[in-house]
Design a protein that fits this description.
about 220 residues, mainly alpha
Length: about 220
């Protein structure tokens, strides 16, 4: 668990360290905002690269503090919470580094960048979902983390069945999301990912009701 916290803290710090380190090398005038088509619609000062980290750093600190609160529940719940934190800050760090590179090059259209940001982030998110799905079946007792529905908390046996199924469904959504990052161009991969997550959620809810109705009371 200490390793997870160390990795999480490192990724949180990177959202602040990377812009500070890049600041002396950035031109005074950088692309400050891109429209939906990927074209610059506003230019601004290079110091605007610090705005995103100003919000991310305290957010990460609060998320990490909440992870420690799960310690009183179950170790697995704390573990899943911290894996989620690592996944989201890996995504944030990719975004920070990507836009720092775009700022350095003064890129006027993101479509000319070597990497497609949407596909990159969708792929990283998909891998994170696979990791979370792999750990979900380890949630042995009903709690606030996991596939939680009115039916999944019926008893411990139903809960464990639902976490196994939920883990498989979430991992499958991750596989489809990563596949979408490879196959679907641009922002359309997010629609692919949203459909995969929605399908996993609906399947989990349906299965939890089935498990509750077919599993005897303890």
């Amino acid at each position: 668990m200490k390793t997870l916290y160390a990795v999480s803290n490192l990724l949180i710090l990177l959202t602040l360290i990377a812009p500070l380190a890049a600041l002396p090398f950035l031109p005074d005038r950088i692309p400050a905002h891109y429209n939906a088509a990927g074209a610059v619609d506003r230019w601004g000062s290079k110091y605007e690269v610090l705005i995103f980290p100003v919000f991310l750093f305290p957010y990460g600190a609060v998320w990490t503090a909440c992870g420690r609160l799960w310690r009183g529940q179950t170790e697995t719940a704390e573990l899943l919470w911290m894996i989620g934190n690592i996944v989201q800050f890996a995504v944030f760090d990719f975004m920070v580094l990507y836009f720092l590179y775009a700022d350095f090059r003064q890129t006027e259209n993101l479509n000319f960048m070597p990497l497609d940001l949407n596909r990159l982030l969708c792929g990283v998110s998909g891998l994170g979902l696979i990791a979370l799905g792999n750990w979900m079946p380890k949630l042995k007792e009903p709690g606030p983390v996991g596939l939680r529905t009115p039916w999944s908390v019926k008893n411990t046996a139903v809960w464990r069945k639902c976490q196994r199924f939920g883990g498989w469904a979430l991992a499958a959504a991750g596989v489809f999301s990563a596949g979408g990052a490879l196959l679907v161009p641009g922002a359309w991969c997010w629609l692919w990912m949203a459909l995969a997550l929605a399908s996993a959620g609906i399947a989990g809810a349906v299965y939890s009701r089935h498990a509750a109705s077919t599993t005897p009371d303890e």
